[in-house]
């Protein structure tokens, strides 16, 4: 489906490169993200999303003509970037405010600075159009969305954010530069990302030579299927960088494996740690979900951890909102769990031991 996006803002540039050339962002190039870039053409600068949705065979280009001051977002994972860049009040609409964890955005909702647009996928278009947003920042899983088509037909730019397709933690976090371009905060975005990257790299260096790399199991059964990160999935890379031996690290895919319980039990029954148990926030709840979980060694040894420590005012887990923007904190949490002696005074942000 084709969307015509008539305006964004022009970034200041110090040179005049050739048309179509990929450009540096702020003071450094885009190093890890593979899903977008900024290029200069004869008629101005463009933000280019190279793969707007899974298996897309098109790119989306947005001319940068002015900074955004009124934006509708469609994913909670977009919100931390606005907050980090000091532009929280630029978000004027969101589908279903109850899913937001950030105290900042919850408070903005309470004082009617953000309009609740109803359920995602069936947003109230009349309310949305009435907000007169500069753009709607959306994500799409397949390139077909009647709601997004109607928004574009109403003359409101729809900008695709595909950060969820990145295969590395730093690659996803670098999408702060995507938001920096839209909000005229490219230098701040560059500085913030550099700090995150430096912290992440320092943590990775800590575990480079650890003698024992504990084995890790992750996930739970949904119906008859245990969804497991592939060996090149960003979750698997977190475990590798944290000094663990992820039990499916030999897999070459970046997506998700669909395994049966027996296959997981055969390989992981004696795992040292079980990290990530969906919405289960206690061992009792985990066992109630499936009594067979009690047969895994980490369950019996009290070495089960989940990302349920930090909850928002509405009860949602902040991990699914802010953690994608802060891979350095996620990595520090995992190192604290797996190699606590390396970070003796650190307190985890997202993960907690299940009791």
Record keyword descriptors for this entry.
single chain, 355 residues, alpha/beta, Rossmann fold, five-stranded mixed sheet, disordered N terminus
Question: Topology, please?
Answer:
Layout: E1 21-22, E2 36-41, E3 44-49, E4 60-63, E5 71-73, H1 79-84, E6 91-94, H2 103-110, E7 115-116, H3 125-130, E8 135-138, H4 146-153, E9 158-160, H5 169-173, H6 176-183, H7 186-207, E10 215-217, E11 221-222, E12 225-229, H8 234-241, E13 245-246, E14 256-259, H9 261-268, E15 273-275, H10 283-289, H11 297-300, E16 304-306, H12 319-322, H13 327-338, E17 352-353
Parallel strand pairs: 5-6, 5-8, 6-7, 8-9, 10-13, 10-15, 15-16
Antiparallel strand pairs: 1-2, 2-3, 3-4, 11-12, 12-14, 16-17
Describe the structure in your own words.
The protein has 355 residues and is α/β, with parallel strands linked by helices. It has two domains: 21-195, Rossmann fold (3-Layer(aba) Sandwich), CATH 3.40.50.1980; 209-353, Nitrogenase molybdenum iron protein domain (Rossmann fold, 3-Layer(aba) Sandwich), CATH 3.40.50.1980. It has 13 helices and 17 strands. The strands form four sheets. Strands 7-6-5-8-9 form a five-stranded parallel sheet. Helix 1 (79-84) links the parallel strand 5 (71-73) and strand 6. Helix 6 packs antiparallel against helix 7 and helix 7 packs parallel to helix 13. The longest helix is centred in the middle third of the chain and has 22 residues, at 186-207. The radius of gyration is 21 Å and the shape is globular. The termini are far apart.
Helix coverage percent: 25-40%
The count of strands amounts to 17
Query: How would a crystallographer describe the biggest sheet?
Result: 5 strands, parallel
Rg measurement, Å: 21 Å
**Assembly type:** single chain
Instruction: Give the spatial strand order of the biggest sheet.
Output: 7-6-5-8-9
Report how far the terminal alpha carbons are from each other: 49 Å
Work out the strand percent. 15-25%
User: Can you give the mean pLDDT?
Assistant: 90
> Which structural class do the helices and strands define?
alpha/beta
Q: At CATH's second level, what is the architecture of the largest domain?
A: 3-Layer(aba) Sandwich
* CATH topology group of the largest domain: Rossmann fold
Order of helices and strands: EEEEEHEHEHEHEHHHEEEHEEHEHHEHHE
CATH class of the largest domain: Alpha Beta
At the fourth level of CATH, the homologous superfamily of the largest domain is: Nitrogenase molybdenum iron protein domain
Poorly predicted parts = 1-28
Q: Into how many domains do the coordinates divide? A: 2
